[in-house]
Amino acid sequence: MSSPVSLCRDNDIGVIRIHYPPVNALGQGVREGLQRCLQEALADDQIKAVIVTGEGKTFPAGADIREFGKPPQPPALPDVINEYEASSKPVIAAIHGTALGGGLEVALGCDYRVALDSARLGLPEVKLGLLPGAGGTQRLPRLVGIEAALDMIVGGNPVKAAAAKALGLVDEVVSGDLLEGALAFARNVIDEKAPLRRLCDLPIPGDSGADVFARFEQSIARRQRGFKAPFHCIKAVQAAAELPFEQGLQRERELFVELLLSPESAAQRHVFFAEREVAKVPGLDKDTPRRDINTVAVIGAGTMGGGIAMNFANAGIPVKMLEVKQEALEKGLAVIRRNYENTAKKGRITAEQVEQRMALIQPTLSYDELGDVDLVIEAVFENMDVKKAVFSELDRVCKPGAILATNTSTLDVDRIASFTQRPQDVMGMHFFSPANVMKLLENVRGEKTADDVIATVMDLSRRIGKVGVLVGVCHGFVGNRMLHKRQAEAIKLVNEGASPQQVDKVLFDLGFPMGPFAMSDLAGMDVGYRIREELRKEDPANAPARNWTDELVEAGRLGQKTQAGVFDYKEGDRTPVPSPDVDGIIEQYRSDNGITPRAISDQEILERCMYVMVNEGAKILEEGIAARPLDVDVIWIYGYGFPVYRGGVMFWADQVGVKKIHDKISEIYQQTGDPVWKPSARLAELAEQGKGFNR
Ligand code: 3HC
Ligand code: NAI
Description:
Blueprint: E1 5-10, E2 13-18, H1 28-43, E3 49-54, H2 77-85, E4 91-95, E5 98-100, H3 102-108, E6 112-116, E7 120-122, H4 136-144, H5 146-155, E8 159-160, H6 161-167, E9 172-174, H7 178-191, H8 212-220, H9 229-242, H10 245-260, H11 263-277, E10 296-299, H12 303-314, E11 319-322, H13 326-345, H14 351-360, E12 361-364, E13 375-378, H15 384-397, E14 403-406, H16 413-418, E15 426-431, E16 440-444, H17 451-463, E17 467-471, H18 479-496, H19 500-510, H20 516-523, H21 525-538, H22 548-554, E18 567-568, E19 577-578, H23 580-592, H24 602-622, H25 629-640, H26 649-656, H27 658-672, H28 681-689
Parallel strand pairs: 2-3, 3-4, 4-6, 5-7, 6-9, 10-11, 10-13, 11-12, 13-14, 14-15, 16-17
Antiparallel strand pairs: 1-2, 7-8, 15-16, 18-19
Helix pairs in contact: 1-2, 2-3, 4-5, 4-9, 5-9, 8-9, 9-10, 11-25, 12-13, 13-14, 18-24, 19-24, 24-27, 27-28
1,4-dihydronicotinamide adenine dinucleotide binds at residues 299-305, 322-324, 328, 379-382, 386, 389-390, 407-409, 431, 433.
């Protein structure tokens, strides 16, 4: 097999090229090739300087993440980089695309760095639960100083070439032909007999003060709660400041290995690949033709419609927004404008962009104006009769081939499709609130949805900055179906003796941004109440029994919007405060229902709230509503703030142990007979085989 790395000569300059698509990741073959080509260049007397560059779209974008967790194959990346740094001839990195992670560390092992103006450079290892483990934490501070290095290593965000130049990370920015620029730079180095510039020999510039590390740690403590890697990154940079280079490298290695073996990094790497994998729908030919989507319409300018329209305007796609009344249209537009202006105030977009985006949203009251759009997303009231009226109209006016999508969160997408003569063109696009912010999009495939409609909507999700996950039709789809089970269990735990704040704390401590009750206060308690009341009217035999949360709603406690829900809220403050009034209502409920409260342990809360979701997730997989466990994981990460360092509900279950979870679920089912606790057949099968969902 030919090597992915080659050496050629341009007069007296050796050029080492890496060719390992798609991103020139530093797999074993690349490391070996880099080492061999350097040795050849050093042995060639005619070569006076060496350039390292990537072929295709990028300089190496990092170590090969697929190799992590497998036995290491020599040569190790830090050793290869040390050899580059020790080179007796000047080495210049010529960077285009994205020099990330190990890729940037290779560049830091060189004497000089030349970058194309469009290049981006960064150390994103922290996002995989790691730290730069090939000298990055030791060399970068010697080039850019402690504070800038902390920003790049702990933040993990890449910088553009111009910013890298300003930091001193890049020596020259080139526009046009990178290799030509790098050759000219190398020629200059040779002609001027410029000295080697080994970063290991440089002192760290600037004085950041002795407390810089403690300050930095404090500044990230809240945002990075539960993550391990950011704090290890700080420790590694501190080693650069306090130890000689060699010892610093050793400390970096220890911290890196610790992270590499941690469950947090395993989870974060799982999420990296899962996020990319969800776009590849099993059974859907990747060459399925796509329909063109150039113009879009949104029906309804309420909470969801407005946010959905913003996504398209943000992506530069014109969007018509239809309402029944002028007043509702104006209200919706005003909310959108306010949102954009707030973003502009924070400096994230310019005033000009506000106007450009507003101009892309065209309000209308007439269906007749929707004849030319390629996609319509309906976001009107959650009521089947209203949906029927809307889809009948869309069927009448929309051109053949237009995709008709519904944002319904609970209604049957197949029934909605049946209101049209073209069910093959209908599917669900379930956005999450706030729709302009939340990254998750559950794309719901109907019984008759055509493959090209699915492929088009999955592609479009990415185009508008969403992570689209394909799911099937069922009540609540994947995310809300699991969430509702957790919520019901949380309520039962309070019935039996736990306090709402105890339940919330257990899930907050697991890493959720908030507990189930703070979440229902944020969403509005009346939403669930209305659904339950509807069910009680329509299907009393199967409707949920009344519980203490119904009484809160009837007492006017709707959540944050009334400053009172399960918790109290002070004006302008979202912090939940336990409420004596609510305690009273709960006590009354218990006594009315003959319940003697008991002490409930945190462990029981954790198990019941989480295991019930695992069981439901397994049922969802069994029914084919989600194709793979990783689809469920991505939904929980991007739709509900599930802690990334736990990898998603199903990945978390694997880490706890599927057998252990199955046995507990079986035990609870035997005790309660509650159908929600009937172990899923998939779960039982995996437990029996000693397997996990993802492994
Ligand atoms: N290793 C292995 N595969 C990688 C990879 C890596 N470092 N980076 C990307 N890939 C793969 C992706 O899985 C994807 O594979 P697929 O086509 O089979 O799904 C393919 O390359 C293309 O990736 P994207 O779909 O993400 O392509 P984009 O063009 O959108 O983005 C990118 C390109 C910006 C390079 C992005 O892939 C990225 O951010 N990659 C990760 C970079 C990173 O984290 N580097 C650090 C690695 S850890 C490290 O270096 C440790 C060291 O310090 C010792
Ligand atoms: P909303 O009540 O805020 O907005 C609905 C809008 O639709 C109103 O402005 C109303 O005037 C308009 N409307 C009603 N009938 C119409 C018709 N025939 N033609 C045109 N416009 C009409 O409701 P919201 O919250 O935006 O929900 C809309 C849909 O999105 C529902 O199906 C809901 O289940 C779903 N959804 C809601 C989420 C949320 O968190 N609010 C999350 C995900 C989905």
